[in-house]
Amino acid sequence: MIKAIIFDLGGVIVNVDKTEQYKKFSADSNKPFSFIKDYLDTSYLKESFEKGRLNTAQFYSEISRELNLKMNFKNFKKEWCNIFALNKNVEKLIINLKRNFKLILLSNTDKLHFKYLKNKYKIINAFDAYVLSYEVGYRKPNLLIFSDALKKAKTLPFNCIYIDDTPAFVCVAKLIGVKAFQYKNFNKLIYDLKNIGVFP
Description:
This protein has helices at 19-29, 33-42, 44-50, 56-67, 73-81, 88-97, 111-120, 133-136, 143-153, 167-175, 186-195; strands at 4-7, 14-16, 84-86, 102-107, 129-132, 160-164, 179-182.
């Protein structure tokens, strides 16, 4: 019997598009768009920030130095966070599911992004519990972060559903007994939920 539903954040509840961020950083640093994209997609600084190993000031200082960014912190924060758009269909689904299920948010995220999203989108505050990489100190696909989510759910793995857009993370959740589905589009999500007896 399903008792808890665990949601990923980026790519599920909010869509993520970093194109404008890369353009702004490229213009500010005089470095090519492709360099900025490649750097940020693989940056050890970003990973460290998401694991809570760097505070916000340290992250801003280090990434500004690495990329030769000249923008002040206020403008950096704006560009760093202005990459999200709410998935309104999923928002409505979460509101419906909250009536009957415990809801957990499990995300690889950083302090700037999460604070921004909580302030901008009320639905983020609808969850019963949060497992955030920058707070717990590790990121998906580390099994420990999934274990933390199950502890917050306070039920057995087979009583939980996990929804994530990243196939590798879905696989890890399945390995520990959670009923996990890859989010590709809203219609597929509804199909997957109905297929196991969960109706929005």
